[in-house]
Give the backbone structure.
Amino acid sequence: MRIDIITVLPELLRSPFEASILKRAQEKGLVEVHLHNLRDYTSSKYKQVDDYQFGGGAGMVLMIEPIDKCISKLKSERNYDEVIYMTPDGEHLNQKMANTLSLAKNIIILCGHYKGVDQRVRDAFITKEITIGDYVLSGGELAAAVLSDAVIRLLPGVLNDETSALTDSFQDNLLAPPVYTRPADYKGMKVPEILTSGNFPEIEKWREDQAQRRTQKRRPDLLEK
Ligand code: ADE
């Protein structure tokens, strides 16, 4: 898979891809992540990428020209499954969406900034608009990192234990059950006995039951889906 991220702040996006699982996924050749600085695509002398909004009002708007240039260049090099715009008024990111996107070959992610992008960008180039939650971030960069992480960890070979993404919360619309590690007794706080019993069918049943209970208690809305 290849992910091209268009941003005015590439430095904000570098570190998430330079550590741990996302770094290893790139080293293994399972994903390529390319950051594109919008300022490299402006023809204006001062590398201006934003301007005041027509009709007045506070806040700057990202201009269409540099975005058009960047997206057009990328599209001339390969086909893209989706051109995604990170925006608070987009569709909510969830596990199902991450699963679907993990099947894509090439995606572009455009990060908004200030008051957002010229509406014509959205009308002409964007195929999917995604929010990571009902709150406003300073820009789409952190949201793009969240989306990329959610997608990349699903690519075959990225996680060491191939099954571990299958037992994540939200796969099957259930939250994950509680987990424990050593010591079995910490200052009198004990691990549930079943987990140290060695009875794996019973352990599996216990986990399913705990996942059900936890979901019922914390996210009953998931059980209605
Ligand atoms: N840009 C600003 N806020 C955002 C959010 N909540 N989700 C996605 N992109 C954003």
Residues 86-88, 112, 131-133, 135-137, 140, 143 surround adenine (CB under 6 Å). The helical segments are 10-14, 20-27, 64-77, 95-101, 119-125, 141-152, 200-218, 220-223. The first strand starts at residue 2 and ends at 7. The chain has a mean pLDDT of 95.
